[in-house]
Amino acid sequence: MTSVDTISRNLEDNRTKVYKKDYSFFNLGSVLALAKVSDAESCQCKRCQANMERLAQFSETYPDLIAMGEAGKRNLEDGLDDIFQHLAKEHGYSRKGWYKSLYGAIGLGVGLLAGILAALLASDGNGRVAFAVAATIPLVAGYAWGGRKDFLAEKAGKIV
Ligand SMILES: [Zn+2]
Description:
Helix content: over 70%
Bound molecules: zinc ion
Strand content: under 5%
Number of helices: 7
Low-confidence stretches: none
Radius of gyration: 22 Å
Number of strands: 0
């Protein structure tokens, strides 16, 4: 069984082998974050157990993968994304700020439609004001709702 400590140690030990900017560019800190969460879920989930092994492997081989060029880099990125997607779909995790951008985008879409509709229905000369008011409300509401969902997810320890 791979432990979070082993992964953390591997990550640190190999850090000198890669460029500083590559470490942050490939988001290698997330290997540890994903490991902590996968470890917590692994008593209930075989896939998370297997993902712990994959993360351990990444923590050992990431300098080689990055040095390898495109194929290696893609392998690393796709692997980490796959592990995150599993945590998101099966265990309800999300990234920091994810709900805010999701509901913000929905609010923007709804706001534009509402704004256009309001502008069409408004009496002559009030179109712009009607548009601005009708468009702003869903946008602000979307951000607020998303921000609250992010806050609750963070409080529940569901952010990776
Ligand atoms: Zn799982």
